[in-house]
Write a structure and sequence with these properties.
73% of the residues lie in helices and 0% in strands. By secondary structure, it is mainly alpha-helical. The protein has 2 domains: 2-52, no CATH class; 68-278, Orthogonal Bundle (MetI-like fold). α2 (54-61) crosses α11 (248-268), α3 packs parallel to α6 and α3 packs antiparallel against α8.
């Protein structure tokens, strides 16, 4: 039995090591490419023969690559989207959990149905809808950050609302009733009682929303055009498509710099993220 347990343990550790290696190799390869003087991915090594920061200098100093503008656009769109997603999610989940109103069941069914179909199926409809919306409200049409933010907020509502609603359902209604008897309004009940309790989940939703909106490529590439409006993910992709002699060292440098905010956010907020994912798992 001891030999069998040791064999199983060795197999688990061996499999874990193989998976870690497969996960680290692309990351190390990109870092090596960004520090290599060669312009090709094929010429890169894990430890470059000639270390250089020239790719980063070219990326940040070239007028043909407005990398700073792309990063600013990404932060702007992601920050506004996260704020609106958190506000809309919390208020919607609170209303669905605590109030009774006509059409509540169809709304819940609609949210569940929205989770069934993958978002990629709606790309054509999204493009046509934003094209038509731009004719009446130009700031929310195609090639606008406002339109992109609207899509992000609407697309993030379904799953997030269900998660927050299910957790608010687990909070005793006696807290609400006691506060209302003392003269508090429904808004005060939410702000002073419900929101502090669901704060870990709200932080988790905000972190995940930032990661998904900041790293999005498909929707941003569909709606945005022009170097002054595109986000960093779209900008890096378009740089590889517009040149026959693509400098992959510069592309790798842009990839590393673009990934740093997400990596830093994850390590800074990993405790809150795990706490939010585990919240509600054990209920009293």
């Amino acid at each position: 039995m001891k030999t069998k347990k040791r064999a199983v343990k060795l197999l688990k550790y061996g499999l874990a090591i193989v998976l870690i290696i497969f996960a680290l190799i692309p990351f190390l390869w990109i870092i090596a490419t960004s520090l290599n003087a060669a312009r090709s991915l094929l010429g890169a090594r894990v430890i470059p023969e000639r270390l250089t920061l020239g790719n980063y200098s070219e990326l940040l100093g070239s007028p043909a690559l407005p990398f700073g503008r792309w990063m600013l656009n990404s932060f702007k769109v992601s920050f506004i989207s996260v704020v609106l997603i958190v506000i809309a999610t919390c208020l919607s989940a609170y209303a669905l959990s605590r109030f009774r109103f006509r059409g509540k069941r169809p709304v819940m069914m609609g949210i569940v149905i929205m989770n069934i179909f993958p978002g990629i199926l709606a790309m054509v409809a999204i493009y046509a809808m934003m094209q038509q919306l731009g004719a009446f409200i130009p700031p929310l049409g195609l090639n606008t950050h406002g339109g992109l933010i609207c899509i992000y907020v609407a697309g993030s509502m379904s799953v997030n609302v269900l998660m927050v609603k299910s957790y608010i359902d687990s909070i005793s209604r006696e807290l609400d009733e006691s506060a209302i008897i003392e003269g508090a309004s429904w808004g005060q009940v939410f702000a002073l009682i419900i929101f502090p309790i669901i704060r870990p989940m709200v932080i988790t939703i905000a972190i995940l929303a930032f990661m998904s909106t900041y790293g999005d490529f498909i929707v941003a590439n569909l709606l945005l055009k022009g170097n002054d409006r595109i986000t960093v993910m779209v900008g890096i992709y378009q740089f590889t498509q517009q040149r026959f002699d693509t400098n992959w060292g510069v592309v790798a440098a842009g990839t590393i710099l673009a990934a740093l905010p997400v990596v830093a956010l994850f390590f800074a907020a990993q405790k809150q993220l795990l706490a939010g994912l585990m919240v509600g798992a054990v209920k009293e």
